[in-house]
């Protein structure tokens, strides 16, 4: 029901131009989604098997596997070929590790770790020894030849570098999504320049309904007819940026580059929303925070701290919502896949595959809904900040 | 009981709360839409926003459970 009406309203502007084109487009899009999910789920199985560490004697730990997949990493690990054999081969996209320590800037490729994240592989560069402990680079102390761990698994004789500016897989995926967005929108813009009557064609006919949707369903009703134009660039940017990153997170071949499920990423977006809200707040907005009109004085004093907390809770809830929704989706899919290895039988595989296919399809909807929610709530906060007094 | 077990119970309680909340919102939105089909779009978008608010509180609980577990 949700998807349907989302589509209908999204494509509503197109209906005027021709009712058959959008419908045909919808059916083929739906077919594509189903096919690609099917295809990707098959890949998922490949992954889950690829992540099984050690021999059969070693107990499979789903928690470690899931956390390892959800977290950021140095280098993109795509698959392990010939696992456990002599010619074991890790198919990876190595990414640069850039760390700043007391001895200055050090850079090396993440392939130097040979896909080890237990701190066994020691990389010597610039007179320092680096190890990768659970996808965090540590610098070994002077004279230490091996990492020692305390009871909780934290290294005792190594420390984090001062600054870790590595191009991790999240950063890499962010650049990829930026490039894809630029490609889509610059192509669309060129289409408009070429056409004489401003009728969208090609990729522009896909982009225009979405832009119109953000304008007519999000910005206009939430911010108001007079002021919405100022906020449109930001709203469009976060809508498409979050959406495309959510979609990239669902592609298993990228090993779940979980960018929008990264709290630092969502924190940055929420912080930008907070800054814009605070700076565009008018007199009326601040009055409602510090001296609520229309209530008795004791109530005004009582409400002030609550409103000030509310000012900060709004962006924090934006941050947590996106982070937790996307991470939860990844965790569920991976947990369903781990069932096969927990029960150690192929018989459970059809159940696992069917359920993760189901969850993946739901996640495809969630990618759009979360982008929509983040955008509409940002617009709502901007609207609250710019609302004029009306008595 | 270990702290992980308690965290799991907490996450479950958060899920129950969110389920009740979102269920009520969804049910009322459905009723309202059936009564006034012409308001369909507006009701749906407000229902989604409200569901997001309810969900956020539940997700706070889940995140706390994650941190403890």
TrEMBL record, chain B:
An MF annotation (GO) of this entry: proton-transporting ATP synthase activity, rotational mechanism
Membrane topology qualifier: Multi-pass membrane protein
Annotated InterPro entries: ATP_synth_csu_bac/chlpt, ATP_synth_F0_csu, ATP_synth_F0_csu_DDCD_BS, ATP_synth_F0_csu_sf, ATPase_proteolipid_c-like_dom, F/V-ATP_Csub_sf
Domain V-ATPase proteolipid subunit C-like residue range list: 7-67
Site (Reversibly protonated during proton transport): 55
Key words of the record: ATP synthesis, Cell membrane, CF(0), Hydrogen ion transport, Ion transport, Lipid-binding, Membrane, Transmembrane, Transmembrane helix, Transport
Pfam families: ATP-synt_C (PF00137)
SUPFAM superfamilies on file: F1F0 ATP synthase subunit C (SSF81333)
Residue intervals passing through the bilayer: 6-26, 47-67
Compartments, as annotated in UniProt: Cell membrane
CDD domains: ATP-synt_Fo_c
GO CC terms, sorted: plasma membrane; proton-transporting ATP synthase complex; proton-transporting two-sector ATPase complex, proton-transporting domain
Function (record text): F(1)F(0) ATP synthase produces ATP from ADP in the presence of a proton or sodium gradient. F-type ATPases consist of two structural domains, F(1) containing the extramembraneous catalytic core and F(0) containing the membrane proton channel, linked together by a central stalk and a peripheral stalk. During catalysis, ATP synthesis in the catalytic domain of F(1) is coupled via a rotary mechanism of the central stalk subunits to proton translocation. Key component of the F(0) channel; it plays a direct role in translocation across the membrane. A homomeric c-ring of between 10-14 subunits forms the central stalk rotor element with the F(1) delta and epsilon subunits.
Entry-linked HAMAP family: ATP_synth_c_bact
Family as reported in the entry's similarity comment: Belongs to the ATPase C chain family.
The protein, known as: ATP synthase subunit c
Protein source organism: Winogradskyella luteola
């Amino acid at each position: 029901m949700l998807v349907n009406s989302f589509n209908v309203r999204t494509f509503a502007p197109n209906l005027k131009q021709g009712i058959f084109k959008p419908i045909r487009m919808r059916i083929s899009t739906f077919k594509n989604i189903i096919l690609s999910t099917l295809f990707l789920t098959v890949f998922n199985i490949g992954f889950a098997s690829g992540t099984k560490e050690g021999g059969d004697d070693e107990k499979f730990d789903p928690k470690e596997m899931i956390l390892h997949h959800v977290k950021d990493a140095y280098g993109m690990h795509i698959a392990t070929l010939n696992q456990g054999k002599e010619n074991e081969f890790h198919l990876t996209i190595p990414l640069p590790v850039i760390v700043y320590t007391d001895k200055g800037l050090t850079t090396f490729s993440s392939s130097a770790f040979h896909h080890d994240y237990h701190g066994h592989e020691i990389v010597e560069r610039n007179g320092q020894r680096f190890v990768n402990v659970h996808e965090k680079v540590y610098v070994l102390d002077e004279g230490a030849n091996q990492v020692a761990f305390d009871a909780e698994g934290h290294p005792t004789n190594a420390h984090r570098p001062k600054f870790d500016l590595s191009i991790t897989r999240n950063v890499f995926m962010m650049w990829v999504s930026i490039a894809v967005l630029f490609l889509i929108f610059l192509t669309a813009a060129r289409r408009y320049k070429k056409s004489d009557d401003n009728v969208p064609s090609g990729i522009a006919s896909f982009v225009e309904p979405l832009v119109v949707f953000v304008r007519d369903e999000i910005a206009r009703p939430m911010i108001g007819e007079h002021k919405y134009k100022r906020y449109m660039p930001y709203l469009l940017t976060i809508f498409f940026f979050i959406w495309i990153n959510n979609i990239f997170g669902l592609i298993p071949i990228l090993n779940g580059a979980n960018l929008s499920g990264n709290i630092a990423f969502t924190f940055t977006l929420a912080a930008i929303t907070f800054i814009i809200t605070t700076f565009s707040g008018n007199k009326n907005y601040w009055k409602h925070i510090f001296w609520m009109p229309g209530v008795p004085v004791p109530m005004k004093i009582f409400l002030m701290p609550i409103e000030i907390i509310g000012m900060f809770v709004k962006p924090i809830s934006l941050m947590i919502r996106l982070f937790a929704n996307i991470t939860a989706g990844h965790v569920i899919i991976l947990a369903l896949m781990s069932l096969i290895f927990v029960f150690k039988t192929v018989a459970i595989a059809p159940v696992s595959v069917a359920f993760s296919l189901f969850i993946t399809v739901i996640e495809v909807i969630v990618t759009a809904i979360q982008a929509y929610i983040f955008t509409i709530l940002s617009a709502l906060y901007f609207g609250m900040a710019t609302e004029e007094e009306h008595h | 009981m270990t702290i992980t077990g308690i965290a799991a119970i907490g996450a479950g309680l958060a899920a129950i709360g969110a389920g009740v909340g979102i269920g009520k919102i969804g049910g009322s939105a459905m009723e309202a839409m059936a009564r006034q089909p012409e308001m369909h779009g507006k009701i749906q978008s407000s229902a989604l926003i409200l569901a997001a608010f309810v969900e956020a509180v539940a997700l706070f609980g889940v995140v706390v459970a994650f941190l403890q577990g």
